[in-house]
Amino acid sequence: MTHMTKERLLESGLGMLLERGYNDLGMQALLEATGTPKGSFYHHFRSKEDFTLQVIDRYMAEVHRGLDHSLGNTSLPPVERVRLFFELSQEKYRQEGYLGCLLGGVGQELSGVNETFRRKIESCFTAIATRIAGCLEEAQQRGELPPEKDPRQMADLLVDCWEGAALRSRLRRDPGPLGTMLDFYFSAAIR
Amino acid sequence: MTHMTKERLLESGLGMLLERGYNDLGMQALLEATGTPKGSFYHHFRSKEDFTLQVIDRYMAEVHRGLDHSLGNTSLPPVERVRLFFELSQEKYRQEGYLGCLLGGVGQELSGVNETFRRKIESCFTAIATRIAGCLEEAQQRGELPPEKDPRQMADLLVDCWEGAALRSRLRRDPGPLGTMLDFYFSAAIR
DNA sequence: ACTTACCAATAGACCGGTCGGTCTGGAAGG
DNA sequence: CCTTCCAGACCGACCGGTCTATTGGTAAGT
Questions:
Q1: What CA–CA distance (Å, rounded) separates A84 from A182?
Q2: Is residue B58 one of the residues assigned to a domain?
């Protein structure tokens, strides 16, 4: 009962931030959409910035759950586990109407001005790439990835290109760019 | 003399939009930075949105000049012309302090809410990809690109991945992601 | 068991500041 | 004289955030 309000705010906030971005999302809109009085919001969050950072944490928790599920699936070859993660993400994007990735959105919007968010988002990408790199290392040991490739660099590259494809998918409101990008990467990286 | 004010606004506007994005850039800041009174601004532009669209046009004019220069350099093999364009862009990003690409920034920020900008930015990407696709077709005819690849799709892919790398470069304030992405694409795509 | 005390959580009026945009007035120049 | 452009006072709306008042539930005190 007690922290349901906070939960509701984070949940709706995630969707609204994805659609509208940080600066275009006003307190009034958020509060009305969730039926929350101002006092409640500022009881649970220090500021709009604090709130948004917590929304990002929530988003990252989802991402890590997805990574657990995909990369943890040891019945698949490591490279296929990585691919599975992005195919899962693509399906999530579809459900949201192809609005892209929250990290890419907030990162793009705020990283020019706000150092806190710049670092935060970069650390999120680093975290994702690190987990993927671990999986690619395993692939390399198994001989399923050419030994001259640097797993770390390949993982960052994959994340970066994915974010670009996600932006284009947001612009076009369709999954095309995501699929094309994955096909290219996995056929090219693996040889 | 007459349109120097407008010129000044567009010029500064480009830099400020790149750094701060659309919603975070207030009229006051723009006007103060350029020493322009409000009356002048609204004499030359219908609205902030109109202004921003013109800034984008200006940005695209630059891009097309870069494409003219790179893709028009027939002393190079077509694929090298394409690569040259992105290496030129990378150098431009460096001069700006690695703030990424205006199209990516504004596109990411506004495409969730504003249909005008969504279409506008998408049409810009399409225009760039179209010109690159033309060059890749020439490469294909020369046998410098595998015949089974679709030049159009390869061009879109390149633009998308570039935008992703540009975002990461903005987050890290360094060119690493851009270079890695280009190396990967051109070694993998051409084969 | 009943009262009391306390506190997390809700509720919204209210704040100064800034937003994008309008309007009127005048200067400059053909 | 008439248009183009500069100049800035002014507008209502909304911004993120503060403040005080009041809930409702629970734990302690007797």
A1: 10
A2: yes
The verdict on residue A83 lying in a domain is yes
**Residue A29 CB in 7 A reach of strand D:** yes
Q: How far apart are CA B190 and CA B75, in angstroms?
A: 19
Percent of chain B residues past pLDDT 90, beyond the cut: 96
pLDDT for the residue A5: 87
Range of the domain at A128: 46-190
Residue B4's pLDDT band (cuts 50, 70, 90): confident
B181-187 contact pairs (CB < 8 A, 24+): B181/A157, B181/A160, B181/A161, B182/B83, B182/B86, B182/B87, B182/B90, B184/A157, B184/A188, B184/A189, B185/B157, B185/B158, B185/B161, B186/B79, B186/B83
In a domain, A186, yes or no: yes
Which of B39, B37, B38, B41 lies closest to B7, judged by CA?
B41
The verdict on B163 touching A (C-beta cutoff 8 Å) is: yes
> How many distinct structural domains can be found in chain B?
1
How many Å does it take to go from CA B154 to C1' C18? Answer: 46
Residue from the list B109, B153, B177 with its beta carbon closest to the beta carbon of A156: B177
B48 touches strand C (CB under 7 A): yes
Burial of A150 (C-beta count, 10 Å sphere; 0-12/13-18/19+): middle
The domain that holds A88 is classified in CATH as 1.10.357.10
Alpha-carbon distance of A14 to B12, in angstroms, equals: 33
Say if CB B82 and CB B92 are below 8 A apart.
no
How do residues B46-58 score in pLDDT, each as one tens digit? Answer: 999 999 999 999 9
B168 assigned to some structural domain: yes
Question: pLDDT at residue A137 above 90?
Answer: yes
Rounded to a whole number of angstroms, the distance from the CA of A98 to the nearest CA of chain B is: 10
Tokens 């205006």, residue? B102
